[in-house]
Amino acid sequence: MGVRLVVGMFMAGGAAIIILAPVLSQVATSVGIHPLHFGFVMVLNIVIGLLTPPLGACLFLVCSLSRIPIGDNCRNFMDAAGRFGYNLSRRSALADLGGAHIIF
Q: Is the pTM of this model over 0.70?
């Protein structure tokens, strides 16, 4: 989980999925993780990585479009980042729920 978050912080989402998905999906299926659950958690990891600083491409895009300074938006984002992290940990730990109960 942590590797995908860090990769999502420093690499574009599409490139990260193209590079990591073939390798990590083989590992996940050999461990017994359902491929759909693995894909859901992987995309959620990469999206959270795109939103968080230090690179945070989506965060900078939102700040430039809304004309809100980065510092103000980062303070507001910390609450949402906590919820994203909680949701990601639930999705990673509770594979039996799948994607049926999305909690935001």
A: no
